[in-house]
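Assemble and predict.
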Amino acid sequence: NAGVTQTPKFQVLKTGQSMTLQCAQDMNHNSMYWYRQDPGMGLRLIYYSASEGTTDKGEVPNGYNVSRLNKREFSLRLESAAPSQTSVYFCASSRMWGANTEAFFGQGTRLTVV
Amino acid sequence: GESVGLHLPTLSVQEGDNSIINCAYSNSASDYFIWYKQESGKGPQFIIDIRSNMDKRQGQRVTVLLNKTVKHLSLQIAATQPGDSAVYFCAENLSGTSYGKLTFGQGTILTVHP
């Protein structure tokens, strides 16, 4: 049982380049999330998808877009990468929205923008 | 549980001791709290959760205490082991319009010495 799988694990981009971070979960969860984690800090919510077909902004959405491709997959896109987007990105999923259930996290994508 | 800049609070204990990690949460409307453990290079892993209608919840070797009066959460780890060394995050789930989204604290580094 893979849980939450993120690809790639590592990526280096030049300023202005674009890329998409992929996330897939096999737990039949309804809700999915993208967080970023900067050194010495907790996770901050970028975007979330409460259910298939819906997406909403989190705490730090600027510079990102998301797509809930289907129930399993939730991608995060950087259209024009900036050094300030250097971070570790975590995808997470939870069984239900607003039901106080735990979120399961992927292993993270370490992104460096030079 | 407070941190300044990039410097996370740290806790060093000897193997076999009990550990207590503290967290101050910010929003009195929060109604669900989770403790996560994050090992180096990995995503956060669920440890234990508690709802706001409870003061205490116990798991295997872990206990979470919630004091709503002072908005304080603590994680107690009994008989701490070297494998418990990690960064520990508390997270709160806000009720109302933000229901379902977790807000993370900045984390505490736990180091267990054999």
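The mean pLDDT of chain A is 92.
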